[in-house]
């Protein structure tokens, strides 16, 4: 399993603590430094079963600068959203855990992290 984190994020630190407490085998990806490509974001979205706007942090300053809240949320703008996430990784919701069964979860709660552990 892999977990995309921002070390400054308390939700990420909590998820890591739970993974460690459960003895999980995982790798850490500091996605602000090791920025995912558009294709990697598409893959994670497919694994999550979500759309790019579902994992976008719309309260970030860069989101305001880009005017993301005003963007349409449809198939025609999907690539625009993905490009924004790849260009501005701070917009990506965190942590994202890719499970061994090919699925993924946004691990913002203990239940979500445990869900990833059970897969």
Question: Tags for this entry?
Answer:
globular, 4-stranded mixed beta sheet, 39% helix, 119 residues, alpha+beta
Describe what is shown at a glance:
The protein is α+β, with helices and mostly antiparallel strands and 119 residues long. It is built from 5 helices and 4 strands. Strands 2-1-3-4 form a 4-stranded mixed β-sheet, with helices on both faces.
Report on this structure:
By secondary structure, the protein is α+β, with helices and mostly antiparallel strands. 39% of the residues lie in helices and 12% in strands. The protein has five helices and four strands, in the order βαβαααββα. The protein has a four-stranded mixed beta sheet with strand order 2-1-3-4, sandwiched between helices. The longest helix has 12 residues, at 10-21.
Layout of helices and strands:
Blueprint: E1 2-5, H1 10-21, E2 27-30, H2 38-48, H3 61-66, H4 78-87, E3 96-98, E4 104-106, H5 110-117
Parallel strand pairs: 1-2
Antiparallel strand pairs: 1-3, 3-4
């Amino acid at each position: 399993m892999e977990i995309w984190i921002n070390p400054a994020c308390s939700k990420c630190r909590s998820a890591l603590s739970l993974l460690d407490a459960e003895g999980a085998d995982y790798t850490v990806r500091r996605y602000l430094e090791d920025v995912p490509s558009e294709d990697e974001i598409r893959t994670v979205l497919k694994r999550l079963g979500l759309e790019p706007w579902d994992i976008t942090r719309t309260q970030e300053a860069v989101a305001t600068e880009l005017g993301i809240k005003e963007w349409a949320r449809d198939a025609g703008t999907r690539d625009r959203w993905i490009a924004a996430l790849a260009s501005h990784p701070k917009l990506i919701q965190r942590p994202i855990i890719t499970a061994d069964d090919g699925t993924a979860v946004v691990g913002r709660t203990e239940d979500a992290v445990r869900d990833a552990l059970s897969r």
